[in-house]
Amino acid sequence: MAIRRSAAKRQGLPTVVQLRLAPTSAQADALATAVQVCNQAAAYISRLAWQQRTFPVLDLHRLAYHQARAHVGGLGAQAAVRAIARVAGAYANRRASRKRAHIFRPHGAVPYDARLMSWNRDARTVSLWTPAGRMHVSYTGREEDLKALDTLPIGEADLICRKGVWLLQVTVTVPKPAVREPVSGFLGVDQGVVNLAVTSDGAVLPGPALPGPIHGNGHVGALRERRYRQRRRLQKKGTSAARRVLRRLSGREHRMMTDVNHQISKYAVREAERTGRGVALEDLQGIRSRVRAHRLQRRTLHSWAFAQQIAFTRYKAARAGIAFTLVDPAYTSQACPECGWTSRANRPARGRFACIRCGLAGHADHTAARNIAQRGVAGWAAVNQPHATGLPSARRARESKPPASAGGS
Ligand SMILES: [Zn+2]
Q1: Torsions phi, psi of 406, nearest 5?
Q2: CA 375, CA 344: separation in Å to the nearest integer?
Q3: Residues near 323 by Cβ (< 8 Å), separated by ≥ 6?
Q4: How far does the centroid of ligand 1 lie from the alpha carbon of residue 99, in Å?
Q5: For the purposes of burial, counting CB atoms within 10 Å of the CB of 137, is it exposed (0-12), middle (13-18) or buried (19 or more)?
Q6: How many whole angstroms from 123 Cα to the centroid of ligand 1?
């Protein structure tokens, strides 16, 4: 009883494990047909949805279910339902995507839900729907992934064929550990543009402290700058070949930033765990508006990178049972973490902080990170000990001055 209650309260964290399927050649043919049929159905329903401007799942079901089954040979009832949900989801996620019909590639990953697949975990086989009937396919995987699959609740899965290898990427729900009280306060992380991130302890990330392919943030900065120039050159050209290179570039940059964000969030959470603290980051809305002020820096800014950093850190903190909080970003770069004096005059030069009242001086991003850490403590206390005295400093700042206005992208 007690266990059930606490599990329901804490929920879980979705995690993806990858299984390698071992289909017989007949099964592989059936799986290939299933992928083809499901993607063909999604593409067909997507065109219908877009032509008729019909996006909500129930309306789309009414519009497309019978037509899709009549038009796409071998499409079962459940597969049709799943395809409709998939199309509705594709249009629901981004309003911008409604400007043109969403494309479903013929060999793209196909989602399977509980109605299209069933598991025999003892025999290590999974039964998958295909137009030729259910296929009981055996699977293998890494030891820890198989263990996770044996013990955790299983959600949806993506069926995908990569270079002739059949893979099933399965979502399992990992129980969330209880969040430990941040007895030693918070580690503040300032997401900058010049330095990608600086902690309230003064660590500059990514730096030599982080393992992995990137050593020192100078490398990342230089790479971004080079990409920026390359992109400008290609944009001027504007030919279709140039546009193709551009797409590939942004993909590569995307992957690099994702890697950096994984490293930073991993470091921050591990450091907080080691020192009995929580992790505090600035709320995204404010970062955008604050950074917008710097025209020179803006060009290298990807607001998605900030959003991704927040998502990664939040997830890793939850997985480790570490407190995580977002703080009001107003004036984190102008406030003095020692005496509280907040003024534009505290910033004598770009990258420098020097308090005109108490004389505290240092790296501007480090000072901002210290403010973030302090606001993390105050914000956490306000939420988790609502009877604690005093307003959190973030709220005080918001009440005394209007927050920097945000909007656009
Ligand atoms: Zn001061």
Answers
A1: -125, 165
A2: 19
A3: 179, 180, 181, 182, 186, 277, 278, 279, 317, 380
A4: 51
A5: buried
A6: 66
Domain assignment of residue 406, yes or no? no
Over the chain, what is the mean pLDDT?
A: 82
User: Do 207 and 70 sit in the same domain of this protein?
Assistant: no
* Residues measured by CB to lie within 5 Å of ligand 1, the ion: 336, 338-339, 341, 355, 357-358, 360
Please report, rounded to a whole number, the percentage of residues in the chain having pLDDT higher than 90.
58
Q: Are residues 211 and 341 in the same domain?
A: yes
Per-residue b or e along 243-277, where b marks 16 or more CB atoms closer than 10 Å to that residue's CB: eeebeeeeeebeebbeebbebbbbbbbebbbeeeb
Which tens digit of pLDDT belongs to each residue from 167-203?
Answer: 999 999 988 889 999 999 999 999 876 667 899 999 8
Same domain, 290 and 393: yes
Q: pTM of the entire structure?
A: 0.66
Percent of the chain whose pLDDT exceeds 70: 73
Average pLDDT, stretch 209-224?
51
Dump pLDDT digits (tens) for 316-337. 999 999 999 999 888 888 999 9
Task: Please report which confidence band the pLDDT of residue 138 belongs to, taking 50, 70 and 90 as the band edges.
Answer: very high
Nearest by Cα to 368 from 326, 330, 311: 330
With 50 as the cut, is the pLDDT of residue 212 above it? Answer: no
Confidence band, pLDDT 50/70/90 cuts, at residue 83: very high
Cα 280 to Cα 261: distance, rounded to the nearest angstrom: 15
**Token match 């196909």: residue?**
110
CA of 394 to the centre of ligand 1 (A): 17
Could you tell me the distance, in angstroms and rounded to a whole number, from the CA of residue 369 to the centre of ligand 1?
Answer: 15
* Overall size of the chain counted in residues: 409
Same domain, 37 and 136: yes
Total domains in the fold of the chain:
2
* Ligand 1 centroid – CA 366 distance (Å): 14
Q: How far is the CA of 357 from the centre of ligand 1 (A)?
A: 5
Shared domain check, 212 and 153:
no
Please give the pLDDT value at position 207: 66
CA of 363 to the centre of ligand 1 (A): 14
Residue 33 CA to ligand 1 center (angstroms) comes to 68
Residues 129, 198 within the same domain: no
Let me know: does 135 contact 119? Beta carbons within 8 Å: no
How far away, in angstroms, is 336 Cα from ligand 1 center? 5
For ligand 1, the distance from its centroid to the CA atom of residue 338, given in whole angstroms, is: 5
